[in-house]
Amino acid sequence: MSASASDKAAVLVEALPYIRRFAGQVVVVKYGGNALAGASDDDALALFAEDIVLMRQVGMRPVVVHGGGPQISELMNRLGKVTEFRNGLRVTDKETVDIARMVLIGNVNPQLVSAINVHGSLAVGVSGEDAGLIRATARDPELGFVGDVESINPTILQALLDDEFVPVVATIGADAAGQAYNINADTVAGAIAEALGAEKLVYLTDIEGLRRVVDDPSSLIRQTTPDELDALMADGTIAGGMIPKVESCVHAVRGGVRRAHILDGRIPHVLLLEIFTDEGIGTMVR
Questions:
Q1: 65: CATH
Q2: Residue 157 region, left (φ>0) first, then alpha (ψ -120 to 50), else beta?
Q3: Quick check: is 3 in a domain?
Q4: Which of 32, 67, 68, 69 is catalytic?
Q5: Is 8 marked active-site?
Q6: Is 69 a known active-site residue?
Q7: For residue 260, is it within any domain?
């Protein structure tokens, strides 16, 4: 049943104060490959692109940071390589980092840019290697070419934002010698949000948010703090692939980002529901 004219008007009125509040503010959105779970890639990507474009059109300054873990794993499987993870991080030899570059820069990034640019010449794809955006260091010799973020040089992002473009960032960084590293996209999103002084940092994934009891949907955490998240990681409630995401939320909020959000990217227009409605959705860290 379609919404009535009065219902549509009520939605716009509800959104108005949020549009005013966030006009001119940077919002960093991490779009993970897992956000596509449960929906066709085309539909999920098109809905996500519409959200980003609407945010831009009402005066917000979105920056998209993307992963591509499932896509990297798929190509590795096709090439006969075994995928190994340790604490949510992919063990990355020299061949694997080449595969990651191929997937992230050559496949996922152009798909996102193209989906946004259906609505106008808005998006520009960049890699962490471009203009020294992400300076990386090796995290652990046992992980191979897995990098930590040593520093973020946001100059290229600021220039794109000032020219009213939407930067779309692939999370390959490089060290001082030019060696490429695959860096966890959750970590990069948090570091970029800090460097840009973002109002919000948003993670789109394939879960509804964080739970105090993993198997109990009723224990969804609507609002939380960095201290509480530290405790949930320490007692093992938050584990595995969620650790980098939650650690980067904690670090970003302590580093000056006003709000961090973990949302279910499978929900149509979840970004708009979180940012422009009173009730909100998912888990918010403040």
A1: 3.40.1160.10
A2: alpha
A3: no
A4: 69
A5: no
A6: yes
A7: yes
